[in-house]
């Protein structure tokens, strides 16, 4: 096990020495704690997976913790392509493409705007800059309910209501506070000499941004990609309200499958559909989890 | 970085190029997302398409979510052409704001007023007497199901209402070790047992005094008190898991024989049939009370006013006519185990014993009482359900307290 | 003009911040003084809605629940996150796998989290039944349906969701601590647990500050989790203000009352955030002027 040392990160080997090879009560205790913690974190998802692999008869007959006696992926197939989400019985795959069409532009735009904002707020002091940042931070707390009606009216008057660009814009706007915060903290953690040297060399605002700071932003950009992908993909309310019928993301399909108050419930299909919808962010986390930590190591975390 | 930027822009462009809505699209927002609901709606959608319309389906599960969508759409000035809901008073507010259109032309042409019970006509009309809403299916919300196998084995006869015979039956089941009552204890479902008890005890008179006139005297009177006391007694006859349990799961308890009785609307019939039980043989049902009073509960379709039209569009009238056609009604209610809204519509072939009970009740004069939600506002409805649900979940709450809360909820504006 | 490019670059964000964040809040506050029912309209009624609001038992319960949730969730995530980070940092095997296990819940939406937990805690089919099937017929696990415990169950589910994030942030901070510090600790013979508590913890101040900020965003907005797990029940035991506002906005058709509730929520944020923001502002000012010297 070795953690590569990033150029801008501090040392990661703080108590030296190889992993202790001998048994000790302390080591046992550590592993015991981690095991219990792992169980705590895994149990709910285990129950969902196990239910999704059973037939409805088995679901009704046993409890959720028993593994399936005769596992079948029938529910998964149904969830992907046959489950009824209205008159269409096409499963959640219908929403998959829509979710992609929403999330990719959202992430790209968030990176661009967030990086620019972070850059301005870190290095360019002028009146109003801090005020904007304060308002942004404040805005991060606003529950969506407060903005639904006024934003719907505003979007409608701008011709953005029910359209894909309008939905993307809403996502980017609501992601602005945290993304700006991340970039700002990151840039603020870099040595100020970099900026000063570039200024001395005569480089202008945009030049410094594009040629110097953007290439350096890889660690934090990865964090932002993970964060925004998860946030935008998992969103339901914004997609439902601002997307219009044609742009309904996967979460809307999922809700139609699991939230039927007035019809009968097929729990195994519901579980499978839930997991399918959660798959993209889960994969993103599993694949890039370590970069998430590294990116934060590299400086997302400063006061 | 530049590649990322280009990728993002192309994705955006692709998204923009997606199919725009055409002028002929008829968007319908509804909450019918389960299989049987979808099957039933398809009957109407197919007939609409046959008649030349272009049905654009916008399904959103969970009526609160559906409401969010059609409300914000109307706010944005881009309403759908139709949306589904159940009998309530929403339309009065919207008509006031000029957001709905009437479909009276279709109603008159289809002889709706002559063939639908008066309470239903009242519920679908606006203050100007014109009909604004197309009712699709009727249900009997005050209904009781029981597992016949369990009853027969214990020698219990079908109770008449919620009186002593009912509690004697529950006692017998309890002694046998089974769950007497499969209850669904949450704010959504609590209304069905409570209103069933209230209707059984007080009949249409008290019903009107409580929900329509909201008279303090009636609300604090003996009948309401007795209804709450009965509800309170029922707490002892159900299992702990009743809190927040979906009504389908409660139905499953009864159909599997773990529990004996369920107080739920007639839509639960579909769940019992799905479990393979036959009405009359495996499970029984009845409307509680000496006289079969039924509460009006209907799925309906509402028609927002379209920008540029003063009245209904041709397609809206088309859909309304289809919904009101007796032959279509029979086909529509068949998969859902519901009842047609018109007296001159026939029961579907697959109607079982339980449906027939409801059908007979509706067609006998004077049995139909209005739905409380046609008489009280959504807020009053929500708040009264909150307090009754609180009462159910909290054994320490006294009947006096819940009556106070009930009065407060109904008498607040 | 000085810094013209910078100002232009920030302008779109500034516009958005003004119009969307400030504008929508102003709109909502304005609506809270109206008698709007199902549709926003501007019929002035003074403070009537606020009176009705604080006369509503459900609103008061939801405020109380938000306080419980806020403290429990943020505190619980910080504690559990810190513990997880510490233990993982002890050069254990399978660190990567463990980190993934602790972090993956954060990738799930609150709806999925609530749905999974509710399923797991289902008395008919979940853990309770499992234990009973195994033979402990008296086993009860009534967390979700007990009026007094239900809100804590929601807190537990939220901690399950968010502790991983704290772990990731704190782990990064831990890894950034100079090894000389550890050498000094070993030399002085300070027991590890003491070190983590009194020495390391203060050094991780910035990490924890960021954690608290990120977690706090979720407290006011907590809606999906409650709806997915309990729908506010049993009774109104798990009602939260965000759900109250949403319900009255659409379901109960009282936009005026909902707006009043939302305004109170924002005021709460201001009340808590303003002192903190001022403190940090002064701190930064002082640090900046000190470093200039």
Summed up:
With 303 residues, chain A is mostly helical. Chain A contains 13 helices and no strands.
What does this structure look like?
The complex is a heterotrimer of chains A (303), B (413) and C (293). Chain A contains 13 helices and no strands. Chain A is mainly α. The longest helix of chain A has 34 residues, at 267-300. The radius of gyration of chain A is 24 Å and the shape is flat. Residues 1-16 of chain A have low confidence and may be disordered. With 413 residues, chain B is α/β, with parallel strands linked by helices. Helices cover 50% and strands 12% of the residues of chain B. Chain B contains 20 helices and 11 strands. Chain B has helices at 2-16, 35-50, 63-75, 90-96, 104-109, 112-115, 118-124, 148-154, 164-175, 191-212, 216-219, 222-234, 247-255, 268-274, 314-323, 326-336, 353-363, 372-375, 378-393, 399-411, and strands at 25-30, 54-59, 82-86, 133-138, 144-147, 179-181, 259-263, 283-286, 294-295, 298-302, 368-369. In chain B, strands 2-1-3-10-4 form a 5-stranded mixed sheet, with helices on both faces. In chain B, strands 6-7-5-8 form a 4-stranded mixed sheet, sandwiched between helices. In chain B, strands 9-11 form a two-stranded parallel sheet. In chain B, helix 2 (35-50) packs antiparallel against helix 16 (326-336), helix 12 (222-234) packs across helix 20 (399-411) and helix 19 (378-393) packs antiparallel against helix 20 (399-411). In chain C, helix 7 packs antiparallel against helix 10 (205-221) and helix 12 (241-251) packs across helix 13. Helices cover 74% and strands 0% of the residues of chain C. Chain C is mostly helical and 293 residues long. The chains are: A mainly alpha (303), B alpha/beta (413), C mainly alpha (293). Chain B binds chain C through residues 64, 67-68, 71, 75, 90, 93-94, 97, 99, 185-188, 239-241, 243-245, 249, 253, 377-379, 382-383, 386, 389-390, 392-394, 405, 412, and chain C through 37-40, 52, 57-58, 118, 122-124, 140, 142, 144-145, 147, 230-237, 247-248, 250-254, 257.
């Amino acid at each position: 096990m070795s953690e590569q040392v990033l150029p801008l990160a501090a040392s990661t080997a703080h108590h030296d020495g190889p992993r202790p090879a001998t048994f000790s009560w302390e080591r046992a205790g550590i592993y015991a704690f981690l095991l219990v913690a792992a169980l705590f974190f895994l149990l709910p998802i285990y129950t969902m997976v196990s239910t999704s692999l059973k037939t409805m008869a088995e679901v009704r007959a046993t409890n959720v913790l028993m593994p399936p006696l005769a596992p079948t992926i029938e529910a998964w197939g149904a969830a992907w392509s046959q489950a009824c989400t209205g008159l269409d019985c096409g499963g959640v795959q219908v929403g998959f493409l829509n979710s992609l069409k929403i999330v990719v532009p959202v992430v790209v735009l968030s990176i661009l705007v967030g990086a620019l904002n972070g850059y301005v707020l870190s290095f360019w002091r002028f009146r109003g800059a801090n005020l904007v940042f304060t308002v942004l931070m404040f805005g991060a707390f606003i529950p969506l309910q407060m903005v639904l009606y006024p934003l719907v009216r505003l979007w409608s008057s701008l011709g953005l209501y029910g359209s894909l660009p309008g939905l993307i814009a809403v996502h980017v706007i609501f992601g602005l506070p945290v993304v700006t915060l991340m970039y700002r903290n990151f840039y603020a953690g870099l040595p100020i000499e970099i900026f000063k040297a570039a200024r001395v060399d005569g480089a202008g605002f945009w030049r410094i941004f594009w040629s110097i700071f953007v290439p350096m932003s890889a660690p934090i950009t990865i964090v932002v990609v993970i964060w925004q992908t998860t946030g935008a993909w998992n969103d339901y309310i914004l997609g439902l309200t601002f997307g219009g019928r044609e742009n309904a993301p996967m979460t809307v399909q999922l809700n139609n499958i699991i939230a039927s108050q007035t019809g009968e419930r097929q729990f195994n299909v519901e579980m499978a559909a839930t997991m399918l919808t959660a798959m993209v962010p889960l994969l993103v986390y599993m694949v890039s989890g370590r970069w998430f930590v590294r990116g934060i190591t590299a400086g997302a975390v400063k006061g | 970085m530049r590649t990322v930027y280009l990728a993002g822009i192309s994705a955006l462009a692709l998204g923009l190029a997606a199919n725009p809505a055409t002028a002929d699209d008829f968007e319908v927002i509804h909450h019918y997302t389960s299989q049987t609901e979808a099957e039933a709606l398809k009957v109407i959608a197919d007939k609409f398409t046959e008649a030349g319309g272009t049905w654009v389906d916008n399904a959103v599960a969970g009526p609160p979510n559906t409401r969010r969508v059609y409300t914000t759409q109307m706010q944005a000035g881009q309403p759908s052409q139709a949306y589904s809901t159940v009998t309530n008073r929403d339309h009065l507010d919207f008509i006031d704001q000029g957001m709905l259109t009437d479909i009276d032309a279709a109603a008159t042409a289809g002889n709706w007023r002559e063939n639908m019970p008066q309470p239903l006509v009242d519920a679908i009309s606006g203050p100007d007497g014109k009909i604004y809403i197309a009712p699709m299916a009727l249900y009997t919300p005050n209904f009781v199901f029981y597992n016949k196998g369990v009853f027969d084995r214990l020698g219990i006869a079908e109770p008449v209402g919620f009186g002593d015979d009912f509690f004697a039956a529950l006692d017998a089941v309890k002694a046998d070790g089974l769950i007497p009552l499969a209850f669904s204890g949450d704010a959504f479902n609590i209304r069905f047992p409570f209103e069933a008890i209230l209707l059984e005890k007080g009949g249409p008179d008290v019903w009107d005094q409580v929900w329509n006139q909201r008279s303090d005297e009636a609300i604090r009177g003996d009948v309401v008190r007795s209804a709450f006391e009965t509800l309170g007694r029922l707490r002892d006859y159900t299992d702990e898991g009743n809190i927040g349990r979906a009504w389908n799961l409660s139905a499953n308890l009864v159909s599997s024989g773990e529990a004996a009785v369920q107080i739920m609307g007639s839509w639960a019939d579909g769940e019992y049939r799905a479990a393979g039980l036959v009405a009359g043989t495996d499970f029984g049902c009845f409307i509680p009370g000496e006289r079969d009073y039924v509460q009006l509960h209907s799925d309906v379709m509402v028609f927002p006013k379209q920008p540029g039209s003063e009245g209904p569009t041709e397609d809206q009238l088309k859909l309304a006519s289809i919904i009101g056609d007796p032959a279509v009604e029979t086909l529509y209610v068949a998969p859902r185990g519901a009842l047609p809204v018109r007296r001159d519509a026939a029961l579907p072939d697959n109607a079982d014993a339980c449906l027939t009970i409801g059908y007979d009740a509706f067609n006998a004069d004077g049995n139909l009482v209005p739905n409380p939600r046609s008489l009280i506002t959504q807020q009053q409805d929500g708040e009264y359900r909150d307090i009754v649900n609180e009462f159910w979940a909290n054994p320490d709450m006294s009947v006096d307290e819940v009556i106070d809360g009930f009065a407060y909820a109904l008498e607040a504006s | 003009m000085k810094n013209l490019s910078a100002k232009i670059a920030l302008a779109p964000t500034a516009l958005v911040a003004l119009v969307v964040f400030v504008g929508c809040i102003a709109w909502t506050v304005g609506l809270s003084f109206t008698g709007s029912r199902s549709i926003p309209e501007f019929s002035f009624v003074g403070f009537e809605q606020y009176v009705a609001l604080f006369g509503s038992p459900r609103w008061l319960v939801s405020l109380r629940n938000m306080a419980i949730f806020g403290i429990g969730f943020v505190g619980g995530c910080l504690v559990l996150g810190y513990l997880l980070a510490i233990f993982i940092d002890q050069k254990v095997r399978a660190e990567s796998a463990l980190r993934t296990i602790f972090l993956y819940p954060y990738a799930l939406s609150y709806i999925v989290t609530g749905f999974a937990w509710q399923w797991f805690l289902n008395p008919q089919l979940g853990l309770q039944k499992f234990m009973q099937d195994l033979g402990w017929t008296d086993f009860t696990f009534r967390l979700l349906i007990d009026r007094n415990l239900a809100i804590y169950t929601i807190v537990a589910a939220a901690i399950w969701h968010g502790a991983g994030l704290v772990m990731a942030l704190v782990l990064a901070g831990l890894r950034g601590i100079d090894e000389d510090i550890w050498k000094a600790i070993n030399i002085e013979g300070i027991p590890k647990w003491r070190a983590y508590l009194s020495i390391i913890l203060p050094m991780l101040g910035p990490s924890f500050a960021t954690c608290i900020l990120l977690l706090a965003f979720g407290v006011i907005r907590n809606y999906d989790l409650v709806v997915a797990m309990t729908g506010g029940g049993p009774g109104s035991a798990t009602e939260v203000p965000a759900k109250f506002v949403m319900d009255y906005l659409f379901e109960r058709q009282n936009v005026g009352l909902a707006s009043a509730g939302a305004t109170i929520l924002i005021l709460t944020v201001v009340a808590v955030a303003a002192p903190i923001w001022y403190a940090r502002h002064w701190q930064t000012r002082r640090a900046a002027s000190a470093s200039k010297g």
